[in-house]
Amino acid sequence: MIPIKVLVPSGVLGLGFNYEALRCGIKNNPDIISIDGGSTDSGPYSLGSGTSKYSRAAIKAEWKSLMIARAEANVPLVIGSCGTCGTNGMVDWMENITIELAEELNQHLKIAKLYCDQEKNYIKKSYKLNKILPLNPAPKLNNKLIDEMTNIVALAGAEQIQECINTGADIILAGRTTDTAIISALPLMKGAHPGSSWHGAKVAECGALCSTNPTSGVVMVEFDKTGFTVEPMSKNAYCTSETVAAHMLYENADPYILHEPGGFMDVTYSNYYNIDKKKVRVEGATWNPSKNYRVKLEGAKIAGHQTSLLVLLRDNNYVKNIKKWTDKLSTFLKKEIEERMDINTSEYSIEFRHIGYNSILGELEKNQGSPVEVGVLCLITSKNKISTEIAKLINPFLLHFPLSTNEELPTFAFPFSPVHSDRGCVYKFALNHILELDNPMDAFQIKILEV
Amino acid sequence: MSTLGEKVKKIRSKNAGPFWITVDVFCGDKKVYKDIRNKLKNSKISSLFMISEQDLNRFEIDNLNVIKFSFPRKTIQGDIFDRDMHGAQLAVLLSEMKF
């Protein structure tokens, strides 16, 4: 069966890819098509709320072209981390889209769903048995924090994807999975070089980001007994030994080591060289199995309800003294909120960010320019829905608060009516831990259906 | 005196998961790489990002002429006081650093 060819259409479903390059990939006879469906990179909202970052329409359109490509190639199609966060609900969401498309395309399919949600009681029990270990840095875990989380998922690895492949499914809809496991699973199963199976998967996990033309999306990785070869499928994309090697740096704290369920990959002694203008050959990575099988956990909890307000200031005296203005306003508002609403600062937070001065870097900002105008973004976060009422109380002061007592009341610019925007629940990542398992399938479930 | 950004090919920063930031300095060629590798001190980097020097991990990647720094995020990604969800603007601090 070696070599094994894995076609990766793009770094994530929903971001788009070059359709001509996809067709080129199908012509090259892949053994499997693997695409990632998620990430934590957009923040905790997706996992916290159990929703997709991308629109259903975008996902459906891209998934349709992949389902057509799959039928043509007659190989399995795998998506990992369905619906950005990879919760069970998002696997079912993806199943729903797949069933709709199967009907539209008149395809008869066997579908395997991999569920990665973790029940709170199971997590509490594992924590008590010292099966959950913190990574660095990790929030302090206890039963209260576990209870507060809205969703907890475990990241599946190659073993769980292999279980799905073994069912003979045409389409695999996996919950939260490492970006690499959907690519490495089949080559590992078929006896490809273990270190290189993971290394090739890491190189291809963001699609054509490992090439000179990142937006073209589609890459093919061919795995064998000693290494792997990577090639972008778009006419206008090239892999060079440098673009491929540099991908190990991307979003990776350590440029040589990648931890995965069951061990870690080490690329310290890898060699990269161009076979031709487009293709790069890589050998030399090692796979180092760990004594115990461990998977990473992700969890999110509600951080509060948030309401934002934006006021714009053009008056030169206020622009120059904006920090002083918001400091004075902040002190004043605390008192007003306590007196008029009878709530103290333990129940809410108010933050002012100075757009034009240091709204991105905050205290790290070194470059103090002199903007002509400044935006003040006011963020109110509260334990309950009181943030809306606090925003309404703040509103007139944000509009008229003077720097000194002996001046006419100023009026600043509100760009919106209403001024406040309710942002609803905001979330916080609450886990940076690993879970030890006796058997890789202990924390995961597979469901099969035929449509 | 020029800035570090003017001397090198590219500087980028990004989350490495929700709890870490990683910064890559692509020096471009061996000469620039060697020069910067010797002159760019960890103490300078840690003060720039206001982190302790013990929290700063440094990697010198000879074959790519890259110097890489990784450190834990001061605010967990997306927490209410986080100002930059992807951590990609932090690279500017290194780019604009006098060198």
The assigned structural class of chain A equals: alpha+beta
- Describe the global form of chain B: globular
Strand runs of chain A, count:
20
Quaternary? heterodimer
Spatial ordering of strands, largest sheet of chain B: 1-2-4-3
Identify the strand order in the major beta sheet of chain A: 12-13-9-8-1-2-3-7-4-20
Contiguous low-pLDDT stretches of chain B (5 residues minimum) are: none
Quick check: average pLDDT of chain B? 97
| Number of structural domains of chain B | 1
Q: What would you report as the Rg of chain A, rounded to the nearest angstrom?
A: 26 Å
Count of alpha/pi helices of chain A: 13
Helix content of chain B: 25-40%
Shape of chain A: elongated
Order of helical and strand elements of chain B: HEEHHEEH
Give the chain pair forming the largest contact, with residue counts. A-B, 43 and 37 residues
Give the uncertain stretches of chain A in residue-range form.
none
Concise summary:
The complex is a heterodimer of chains A (451) and B (99). Chain A is built from 13 helices and 20 strands.
Task: Please give the structural blueprint.
The complex is a heterodimer of chains A (451) and B (99).
Chain A: E1 4-8, H1 19-27, E2 32-38, H2 45-49, H3 56-73, E3 77-84, H4 88-105, E4 110-115, H5 120-128, E5 132-134, H6 143-148, E6 149-154, H7 158-166, E7 171-174, H8 181-189, H9 194-204, E8 219-223, E9 227-232, H10 241-246, E10 257-260, E11 263-266, E12 271-274, E13 280-283, E14 286-289, E15 293-313, H11 316-320, H12 322-341, E16 348-355, E17 374-382, H13 387-400, E18 420-429, E19 433-437, E20 445-450
Chain B: H1 4-7, E1 10-15, E2 20-26, H2 30-39, H3 42-48, E3 57-61, E4 66-72, H4 91-95
Antiparallel strand pairs in B: 1-2, 2-4, 3-4
